[in-house]
Specification:
By secondary structure, the chain is α/β, with parallel strands linked by helices. The chain has 22 helices and 19 strands. The strands form 6 sheets. The protein has an 8-stranded parallel β-sheet. Strands 11-13-12 form a 3-stranded antiparallel β-sheet, with helices on one face. The protein has a two-stranded antiparallel sheet with strand order 1-16. β3 and β4 form a beta hairpin.
C-alpha cells in the first residue's frame, strides 16, 4: 500500500494522466474503474507499449524535474524568529542598522581563500542538454554575481570533440568553453568554478586536465545526488554518438554496436539510447588516496558532494571531509534533479532535506565537540527563495556557509534566455512588454550593471546571464531584509536560535524548539525580575 504522501501512475513528468482524474484508487494510483478499451494514457498503460522509456521524465532535454512527494516535514515547518532588541554585526543604532547594511559575503576553505559575494552555489550541472543549452547564462550570471558554479559529471566524456589518448583526455571543446565563460566574467576574485568528477571522469583524468591545462584550482569528488541513488543518465538520439560513448566505456543501452539493435533503431522501433554512469564504491582508503592525488596534481581546494543516502553514509561523508581537510561538503536532500533521474526513484528513495540536514548538523557538531575543525557545509535540495536560504543557513549554523541550488537558477537563466530571444525577434509577449521592449527596460538590474561594466561589456552580456544575476539580486535583497529583522547583519551571526518549529514533529527531528518553547529561560527571567 502506498502512502497518500505519494502520487503514482499519472504525472506531467511522464506525460501521463488518468482517464477518471476525479476517482483514483489511492494505493495504486489507478482509475477506480479500469476499462477494457482504454488506449492507456496512465503510466501503466504507457508502459504497456513503451516499457522502460516511461521510467524517465519527459520530454528529455528541455526540462528539469522534481518529485511530487509530499514529505511529512519540510522547511515550511520552521518559522524565522525576529526580535526588537539589539543588533549583531553592526552598531545598535536605528540609523546604521538598516537592511542595505547587511553583509552577505562569505569566506571559507582551509585558508579562507574562497570568497563569495552571496552564500550561494550551483552544485553540479553536468552533461545534460538542459545544462549545455543554458551554460552561457549560468556561467556568466554566476561569475557576475560572485558565486559558485560546479561543472558536473561526464562533460568531457559526452563531448564528441574531446581528444582522448590512451584512455586519458588531452584536449576538449566543451570543458574549455565552460571554464572560460566563467573565468572571463569573474570579478575581483569573487566566486569559483569547480570541476566535479565521477568514476568515468576520474578514469579519463578530467580533473588533472582541468587543473593543469585550464587553470581550475577547485575540484570536487562526488558520491551521488539527491535525485537518484545510481549514476547519471542521459538519452542519446544519434547512433554514431551512442557508439562513441560505448567505445569510451560508458554503459549504453541497448548496445549500439549490436547489428540487431542498429537495424531496430534504423527502422524506428526505438528512438533513443540510454547512457548510464557507474555507481561508486566508497572506501576510506580510496578516498584518501584520491584526495592526495588531486593535491599532488595541483588542486588548491577540494570538496565532496554527496546525496540523500542513509545516515551511515552521511556520517562517512562528514568524517572523511573533516579528517582529510576538505574545503566544502555539499549534502543534497532527496527530491529534485536537473537530469534524467528515474521518476519513481526521484519520488520514493532517500532522505528528505530537513531530516538529512538535521543529521548533517548533528554529525558535524559531534566531531566539532571532539575538537575537529569542520569544513564548510552546503545543504541542497529544493531551495528557491530567501526565506528557505535563511532557514538552511540557520538550521546548520555555525557550520553551514553556503546554500546549494540548481533547478531555480536554471529556471532563471532559461527565462532570461527566452526573454532575450523575444527581444531579438521584436516579439516581446504582452506580459513582459508592460515593462518595456529592451534589456535595459525589462531587466531591473540593467542600469547598475551597465554602470559597473561599461556600455560595451554590458551589451555582450547574454539575457540568460541577466536572468540569473537579477534572480540572485532579488534573493540577496530578500535575505538582507530577513537578516535585518533578526538583527543579524552578517552571515556569521546567523544561529539556530533564529528558528522555531511550527510542529512538534519538526522539533523532534531538527532539535530546534517548538514555537512556544523558544526563549523559555529568558522569559522566566524577564517576568520574575
Amino acid at each position: 500500500m502506498s502512502s497518500p504522501l505519494s502520487r503514482i501512475n499519472a504525472s506531467a513528468a511522464t506525460l501521463t494522466k488518468n482517464r477518471t482524474e476525479g476517482s483514483i484508487t489511492p494505493s495504486s494510483g489507478m482509475c477506480v474503474t479500469c476499462v477494457d478499451g482504454c488506449i492507456g494514457m496512465c503510466e501503466i498503460g504507457k508502459s504497456a507499449y513503451r516499457g522502460h522509456e516511461v521510467i524517465y521524465p519527459q520530454p528529455f532535454g528541455v526540462i528539469t524535474t522534481a518529485s511530487e512527494k509530499v514529505y511529512p516535514v519540510d522547511y515550511g515547518h520552521f518559522s524565522i524568529m525576529g526580535t526588537a532588541v539589539g543588533a549583531h554585526g553592526i552598531e545598535a543604532d536605528s540609523d546604521k542598522a538598516i537592511f542595505p547594511a547587511v553583509n552577505l559575503e562569505v569566506a571559507f576553505g582551509h585558508d579562507k581563500g574562497i570568497k563569495f559575494k552571496l552564500p550561494l552555489i550551483i552544485p553540479g550541472i553536468g552533461s545534460t542538454n538542459i545544462a549545455t543549452n543554458n551554460w552561457e547564462g549560468l556561467a556568466i550570471g554566476s561569475a557576475l554575481a560572485g558565486t559558485g558554479l560546479t561543472i558536473g559529471e561526464n562533460v568531457v566524456g559526452m563531448d564528441p570533440q574531446s581528444v582522448i589518448k590512451n584512455g586519458r583526455v588531452v584536449d576538449t571543446v566543451d570543458l574549455k568553453r565552460r571554464v572560460s565563460l566563467f573565468k572571463d566574467h569573474q570579478r575581483d576574485g569573487y566566486g569559483a568554478i569547480i570541476c566535479q568528477a565521477n568514476i568515468e571522469d576520474t578514469r579519463l583524468g578530467v580533473q588533472e586536465y582541468a587543473i593543469e591545462k585550464l587553470g581550475v584550482d577547485w575540484v570536487e569528488l562526488k558520491w551521488g545526488q539527491g535525485a537518484k541513488n545510481i549514476g547519471g543518465e542521459v538519452k542519446i538520439t544519434d547512433l554514431k554518438k551512442a557508439q562513441l560513448l560505448y567505445e569510451r566505456g560508458y554503459v549504453v543501452l541497448p548496445n549500439p554496436t549490436d547489428p540487431h539493435v542498429i537495424k531496430a533503431f534504423e527502422r524506428g522501433a526505438f528512438k533513443e539510447f540510454e547512457r548510464h554512469s557507474r555507481i561508486g564504491m566508497v572506501s576510506e582508503e580510496a578516498f584518501a588516496t584520491r584526495v592526495e592525488e588531486l593535491r599532488q596534481a595541483g588542486a588548491k581546494y577540494i570538496s565532496l558532494k554527496t546525496g540523500a543516502y542513509r545516515p551511515a553514509d552521511l556520517a562517512r561523508a562528514v568524517l572523511y571531509a573533516t579528517k582529510y581537510k576538505l574545503d566544502l561538503l555539499t549534502v543534497d536532500g532527496a527530491g529534485g534533479g536537473t537530469g534524467m533521474s528515474p521518476w519513481r526513484m526521484m519520488n520514493e528513495w532517500g532522505m528528505p532535506p530537513v531530516e538529512l540536514h538535521s543529521l548533517l548538523y548533528n554529525f558535524a557538531k559531534t566531531l566539532a565537540d571532539k575538537g575537529h575543525e569542520i569544513p564548510a557545509l552546503a545543504p541542497a535540495g529544493g531551495f528557491t527563495f530567501e526565506d528557505q536560504i535563511f532557514k538552511g543557513l540557520s538550521l546548520g549554523a555555525p557550520f553551514v556557509k553556503l546554500i546549494g541550488m540548481a533547478r531555480s537558477p536554471i529556471a532563471a537563466a532559461m527565462v532570461g534566455k527566452t526573454i532575450g530571444r523575444t527581444i531579438d525577434d521584436s516579439q516581446v509577449p504582452v506580459y513582459i512588454e508592460r515593462f518595456g521592449n529592451t534589456k535595459d527596460e525589462i531587466f531591473v538590474t540593467s542600469a547598475d550593471l551597465r554602470k559597473e561594466l561599461g556600455d560595451e561589456a554590458f551589451e555582450k552580456i547574454p539575457a540568460g546571464a541577466l536572468g540569473l544575476y537579477t534572480y540572485y539580486e532579488r534573493l540577496a535583497q530578500g535575505l538582507r531584509q530577513l537578516m535585518c529583522g533578526s538583527r543579524k547583519f552578517s552571515l556569521e551571526h546567523i544561529s539556530r536560535d533564529d528558528l522555531a518549529c511550527l510542529t512538534h514533529e519538526c522539533a523532534d527531528i531538527s532539535g530546534i524548539p517548538y514555537l512556544t518553547d523558544v526563549d523559555k529561560d529568558e522569559v522566566d527571567d524577564i517576568l520574575n525580575s
